[in-house]
Amino acid sequence: MSTPLRLGTRGSALALAQSQLVADSLTAATGRPVELVRIVTAGDRSGAPVAQLGVGVFVSALRDALTAKEIDFAVHSYKDLPTAPHPGLHIAAIPQREDPRDALIARDNQTLAELAPGATIGTGAVRRIAQLHALGLQLQVTPIRGNVDSRIARVLGPGADLDAVVLARAGVVRLGRAAEITETLDPMLMLPAPAQGALAVECRSDDADLVELLAALDHAPSRAAVTAERAMLATLEAGCSAPVAAHAELAEGEQGDEIYLRGAVISPDGARAVRLSRTGTPADAAEIGKALAADLLDNGADTLMGSTE
Ligand SMILES: NCc1[nH]cc(CCC(=O)O)c1CC(=O)O
């Protein structure tokens, strides 16, 4: 029996679910036992809302524990990672991605189109707020914070004070609450965040045996999609700070696999948006993302900040 690999994780329900999922699939694929090691961060101790501190504090705490060799690997929600690579660390696997779309949880089983004018809808992300405004449905968009369960409670809990919330479908599914989703939003209406629904499995770059072992979890189509979306985001960050959305799909074309990447930059009030797409081969995922970002900037993406109501 080999010594268990130490998988560092935050204590939130979503982090634990994601870590356990990766631990189980690694053991199933390689036979290696994995133990979860709780990393208590400054954020967990302060009790302040995550949205206020930024998820960055959690990512940093896990990365510090990796560098200090207190843990062997970590699992992150990919969309929460900064775009800059972290020195000494390596994303050894991107497992098969969960559905990347956003989801609506509404009172009385309503869909977005069924919500009455004036209905209150909660979400934390500027990207979602901007796209909800862009639909022109006269919804009252309310910024909310907190973990997935507490956001759902704002609609379905005892003291419910909202008609609906929008959140990542992947998080709801991983918490076993998919049955409460009343509509999965078409990316034509609500383009997801770059890398939404994907996990990043990270270890030290110099841990060659583990880099090789974790590669068993890598899912090439998910890696190609995430690479394209994140390359777009990274290139845009230099030129524009408006809400950014991206979604890559892989399909079999006549010449082999094709990647279809859509990107959008939206003004925070939803009044203006640049939406464009590009296609190419999965091997060129990063180049497709960079080229799409350049197209978006050429079409005025950098001018979309600051037009508030
Ligand atoms: N920003 C928080 C966060 N980070 C990852 C997820 C969900 C799961 C995922 O996208 O992988 C969520 C919650 C949400 O956006 O509703």
List keywords for this structure.
hydroxymethylbilane synthase activity, D-Maltodextrin-Binding Protein, domain 2, Porphobilinogen deaminase, EC 2.5.1.61, 309 residues, 13 strands, porphyrin biosynthesis, binds the ligand NCc1[nH]cc(CCC(=O)O)c1CC(=O)O, Double Stranded RNA Binding Domain, Porphobilin_deaminase_cofac_BS, globular
Q: TL;DR?
A:
With 309 residues, this protein is α/β, with parallel strands linked by helices. The protein folds into three domains: 5-97 and 198-218, Periplasmic binding protein-like II (D-Maltodextrin-Binding Protein, domain 2); 102-184, D-Maltodextrin-Binding Protein, domain 2 (3-Layer(aba) Sandwich), CATH 3.40.190; 225-302, Double Stranded RNA Binding Domain.
Which structural class do the helices and strands define? alpha/beta
Please give the largest β-sheet: 5 strands, mixed
Total of helices: 10
**CATH-assigned homologous superfamily of the largest domain:** Periplasmic binding protein-like II
Domain Porphobilinogen deaminase C-terminal: 225-297
Pfam families: Porphobil_deam, Porphobil_deamC
Family: Belongs to the HMBS family.
Pathway: Porphyrin-containing compound metabolism; protoporphyrin-IX biosynthesis; coproporphyrinogen-III from 5-aminolevulinate: step 2/4
Question: What's the structural blueprint in terms of helices and strands?
Answer:
Elements: E1 5-9, H1 13-30, E2 34-38, H2 42-46, H3 50-53, H4 56-67, E3 73-77, E4 89-93, E5 102-106, E6 120-123, H5 126-134, E7 140-143, H6 148-156, E8 164-168, H7 169-174, E9 183-184, E10 199-204, H8 208-214, H9 220-239, E11 244-253, E12 256-266, E13 273-280, H10 285-298
Parallel strand pairs: 1-2, 1-3, 6-7, 6-8
Antiparallel strand pairs: 3-10, 4-10, 5-8, 5-9, 11-12, 12-13
The structure holds the ligand NCc1[nH]cc(CCC(=O)O)c1CC(=O)O.
The site of the ligand NCc1[nH]cc(CCC(=O)O)c1CC(=O)O has 11 residues, from strand 8 and helix 7.
